[in-house]
Amino acid sequence: MALPMLKSATACADFGRTVQPYFSQLNDLPQQIYQSATDLQALKAIYLNTNPLVSAFAFSLLIVPIFLVISEINRNYSQVDRVWSILPTVYNLHYVAYAHAKDLPTQRLNSLAIISVIWSMRLTFNYWRKGGYQVGSEDYRWEILRKYINPPLFFIFNVVFISLAQSILLFSVTMPTYILLLSSPVVKADIPDIIFSQVILGAIFLAFTADQQQWDFQNAKKSYQDSAKLPAGTAFTARDLDRGFLTKGLWAFSRHPNFLAEQSTWVTLYAWSCYLTQSYYNWSGLGAVSYLILFQASTWFTEKVTAGKYPEYRTYRERVGMFVPSLTGGGVGDMNEEGERKTK
Predict the structure, then answer these.
(1) Cα dihedral angle (105, 106, 112, 113), rounded to 10 degrees?
(2) pTM greater than 0.90
(3) Which of 55, 105, 240, 332: disulfide with 184, CB 3.0–4.6 Å?
(4) What is the DSSP letter of 163?
């Protein structure tokens, strides 16, 4: 049996019944695929007879050597970055396809599939327009880290974190979708499913708005630096652009509103699985928690670099919350006046 026989909502979140019994399939899967590599019908049978969580995890491991080899050959460590916006949707679509193949109810999963595709389109578009898919493009943070970590240690870092851990992370944030799949025959789709869907869509829209505001600011700043003139029709003042970082729009309330929205997307998916299984927490939350930890560490490092480039960023950091708006920081207020006081 590729899926457990479950009769209650709470059982769908039982690790001992829904995950642990299928560990052995992971060991057998490589040999089964190798022996049936040229037989499409046999491969289809393997797919249907393998637990979907196991096959998704196996795929996340399969692509690790690809990331590792390409990154080491090109000395470019943004290989996972290039598929960051794609892989979670691949996993979600995998669960949806599996549910269809097994004739399970798919109304809830179909909605999630559409939302996941929209999420990918937003993030992929933003990555593309910033030049992420150009040849040689690399996240500046990897370059900075290479200056502080010697080559042998950085290779280990590449193996363990960049290639392996990040690949597994992109699989793990979609683990709640497996619970949605298991619960589909037990819990009928209802109004709360619509609510969770709308919350995720709202988070995607928030991220898109934040991205667009940042895009408009960076383009205005570049034009201003190139010509020493304010771009026609810009909403920014010379003081805004001289400061070097955005403090208007959503960025007046959160230093990283796009990151807040991104994290909210996967936390909401996890909360959805908790609601369906009538539990306050379940094992699939490991992915969401790991995602939050990564964003905390990554944002700390990003802000350290930013504060080194822009003196006023420290004031901004004191007054505006990293993700959630601060109730005690005082907000952006008049950053011009604050900046003048700091320089006296």
Answers:
(1) 150
(2) yes
(3) 105
(4) I
